[in-house]
Amino acid sequence: MKKTLVALMVLNACAVSTAFAAGDAGTWYSGAKFGWSHYADVSGDKNFNESLNASNDFNVDHDNVGGGVFGGYQINDWLAVEGGYDYLGNAQFNGNHGVNGAKMKSQGLQLSLKTSYALTDDWDLYGRFGAMGYRAETDVAGKNNFETGVRPLVAAGTEYAFSKNWAGRLEYQWVSNVGNSNQIGLSSDIHSVTAGIVYRFGQHDDVVPAVVAAPVVAPEVKTFNLKSDVMFGYDSATLTEEGKAAINQMYNSPEMQSAKNNSTTVIGYSDRTGQAEYNQELSARRAQAVADQLVADGMPAANIQTEGRGASESVTGNTCDNQTGNALISCLSPDRRVVVQISGQ
């Protein structure tokens, strides 16, 4: 009774934890075990007891080899149902000086619930409790008898996963009161210690979540366009009063005030008339003039850089190809500009 109580306490502790070394939920497993069996608390009928009392030299061999095969279904991480066949070995009682001896051997089919407690990701402690349908056979005083029945079974052990499919286990098992002494002359509790190997079917590969790179969002660029014809006199890089006022108004706008501490690029452009080298130089000087005015208005000088791009990146394209003289100069007015770009960071 004490053995049963201790075993059930262990099983109850196992049931409240999560096991990781056990197989995947919803999968099957099978295995085999081999080890040592021990017959204890042997009792006999009247004939056996009389033979025992009559002998002063009675050799008893309680120990033998045992083993079995088993299979199970993993219900969840910590609970499985397991069944199997056990060969429980035999015990011999050899009487000397003419006293009759006895022999008992047994085997059975078992069914139990297996609860597990994880010590690590690969190592479990477990307990099993259930019942065994046994067949016990005896040879007492030359008479051979057998008997069948059902007895409670309790086991405790440890299991280690070598891989996702293979595991090893070491287990102690106790089956109570196998055999009916009134029918076959003997009965005994049977203890066994076995080592086993387990194969788990249908284990799933560990799923590593794919790492998805966050999309790179280009910083928003704020662009301000200034017409050179308004900002400068003809063929000049000196700001007019009207030009200074336009830059001051731009600088104080909410759009620029919210980004004035960001990196800023001032780009000057010219139209296509005149020499390319001169147009490049003029566009650079106009960009610098606008940058200087922005600094004068309060923008940090360290944040500003300037470029002159001459007649490149024309706005008008070929729309003015048929124009000449003042008409051409007027048509190309959109190309003469200064662009202020402020990055989003």
TrEMBL record:
Ranges of residues in domain OmpA-like: 219-345
Predominant localisation class: membrane
Organism domain of life: Bacteria
Pfam families: OmpA, OmpA_membrane
Keyword annotations from UniProtKB, A to Z: Cell outer membrane, Disulfide bond, Ion transport, Membrane, Porin, Signal, Transmembrane, Transmembrane beta strand, Transport
PROSITE patterns membership: OMPA_2
Compartmental location: Cell outer membrane
GO molecular function, one term: porin activity
Stretch forming the signal peptide: 1-21
Entry keyword annotation includes Repeat: no
GO BP terms: monoatomic ion transport
A GO cellular-component term linked to this record: cell outer membrane
CDD domains: OmpA_C-like
Membrane topology category: Multi-pass membrane protein
Family that this chain belongs to: Belongs to the outer membrane OOP (TC 1.B.6) superfamily. OmpA family.
Protein name: Outer membrane protein A
Organism of provenance: Scandinavium lactucae
